[in-house]
Fold this protein.
Amino acid sequence: MVIDFHTHIFPDSIAARTIEKLENIASVKAFTDGRECSLLSSMEEAGVDISIVLPVVTRPEQFDTVNSFAARLNEKYQEKAKRLLSFGGLHPDSLDIKRELRVIKNLGLLGIKLHPDYQNTYIDDLKYMRILDYASELGLVSVIHAGVDIGFPDHVRCTPKRIRKLIDEVAPQKMVLAHYGSFGLWEEAEELLAGEDVYLDTAYTFGFIENERFLSILKKHGAEKILFATDSPWSGQKESLEYLKGLAIDQRDRERITGENAQKLLRISVA
């Protein structure tokens, strides 16, 4: 089973203009048009079995809309061979963080996505600490955008140093640091984060990080805490899998990275 732990889709009605807007902000070209059907086509071509969809709540009032969409998506694909599995989301400015996390849990969503840059909050802010602490208590997986966001390159709200402070103070469970610990800050991530009790995903990493650095972090952190991910539509699923296969990684470790680790983290069984 191959699992892409980090993808994004948008409702068909807004996908085209959302992708165009984000392409212009970041000066990049998307690999798909951001629609649900396009992600499924990408999965079919790449041989991906499950894509984890990560919505971002950019305003507190989006909570109900975003999480209702996620729950409906999961119900739709529950019995499908090619499966989309959406996490939920909440904003750190929510007036009742614990209630919203319980709602996410009760909807059957397995985790949450947090994006410090899009949510205009530093990762070591007390608001995030409270979210991650209670998410851990509920058994939810927490995926966090880490490092530079190419749309906000001058103001990084989630650096390895701040993440280190969060880990030391809260010790969150089932926390996934996107972009291999910190996009563009991988030397610092290796020094401060590799080897800690967190997961690193590979989203939007291949082609940006030097292969030697990638393998060095892998060796120090351990293959059992690495999750294959693409950040689709911003990286291609087929291209990312091919890149991973070209790295000097033991076949058994590659199997862990591309699917087994995610299966264990999410408690997904193979039929």
Remarks:
- The first helix runs from residue 12 to 26.
- The domain at 3-266 is CATH 3.20.20.140 (TIM Barrel).
- The beta strands are 3-7, 50-53, 83-86, 88-89, 111-114, 141-144, 175-177, 199-201, 226-227.
